[in-house]
Amino acid sequence: MSRGLPRRLLMLGAAAAAVPGQVRAQAWPNGPVRIVVPFAPGGSTDLSARFLAEGLSQRLGVSVVVENRPGAGATTGSQLVADSAPDGQTLVMSNIASHAISPSLYRNLRYDPVRSFTHIAMVITNPSVWVVNRDSGIRNLRDLVAQARERRGGLDMASSGSGSSNHLLIVRFSQMNGIEFTHVPFRGAGPAMTAVIAGQVPMMSDSLPSAAGHIRQGSVRAIAMSSAERHPSFPEVPTFREQGFDLVSTSWFALSGPAGLPPAITERLHRETMAVVGTPEARARFAELGGSPGDMTPQEFTAFVAEEVARWAPVVRASGATVD
Fold this sequence. Notes:
Blueprint: H1 4-27, E1 33-37, H2 44-60, E2 64-68, H3 75-82, E3 90-95, H4 96-105, E4 117-132, H5 141-150, E5 155-159, H6 165-177, E6 181-185, H7 189-198, E7 203-207, H8 208-217, E8 221-225, E9 250-258, H9 263-277, H10 280-289, E10 292-293, H11 298-319
Parallel strand pairs: 1-2, 1-3, 5-6
Antiparallel strand pairs: 3-9, 4-7, 4-8, 4-9, 4-10
Helix pairs in contact: 2-8, 2-9, 4-11
C-alpha cells in the first residue's frame, strides 16, 4: 500500500464531511422560508416583516411566509428561531425588545442575543410615539403629567408588551417626573391600539410604523415623538424635548437567523434584504410609516446588537423590572 494513500483517504473524508453544508448553502432556498415575528399581528415588527417577506419572495423565487409567535416580551418567538436548524429556512424579525432589552429583563432567558443568532441585516429604524384616546382630554405631555398626578395610582398606559422599548420609555418618563403609570402590557401593538381607540386604556407608547395609519385617520391623537427632531412625515407632532422632557429613543427591526447560518446564505439574505429596502417603493413606504431603512453589514449589525444590550442594561436595572 502506498504511504500516500492514507493521507489521500483522510483528505477525501474531510472533503466529504464538508459537502453537506456546502450543498445546503448552494441549494438554498429549497422550500418556503419562514420569518417568525415575536409579536402579535398589526404592530411595527409585523408590518416590517410582511413588507420584507413580499419583497424577498419575489427575489428568492420561493414563498416567504410570516408566522406570528408572540409572548414573553418577544422572547418566545426568538427562542424558537435560536433552537432552529441553521439552514436559512427559519428566520426571525429581531428587534430592540427581544435582542436588546429582554437579556437584562428576563433572568432565565435561554438564548444569548449575540451568540445564539446570525445577525443578517437591519431593516428599519423609527422613533416611538405616544398616542391618546380622542376623548381622554390629554393634548400634550403637560396635560398627561397633570392627570397622572391627580389620579390615585396614576394613569393606565398600554404598550406592545413588558420589556419592550416602549414600556421602558414609560418607565423612564415616570422616573424623570416623579409620577406613576400603571403599565398595561398587550401581546403586540395591534391589540393595544385597539384598546386605546375603544377607550379601554387612555393611552399607549407605540412604535411609529404601527401607529402611523391610526394617527393619519384621526382615530387617536399623537402627543409626543421620541425622535431628536420633529419627524418629516408628522411635522405636527412635537418631540419630548420640545415639551421640556429630555428623552430620545429609537426602535429597530431587523432580520436574524439561528447561530451557524452558512456564510453564503447570510450574504445572500443580506444582499437581497438590502435590495428590497433600497427600492424607491420601500423608501416611500417606510417614510409613510415614519421609519428609515437600515444600512449595516452583518458584522456591523452584530456589533450593534452587543452595544444595544450594554446600553439598555442600566435602564432595565434602574426600572427595577425583572421577569422570571
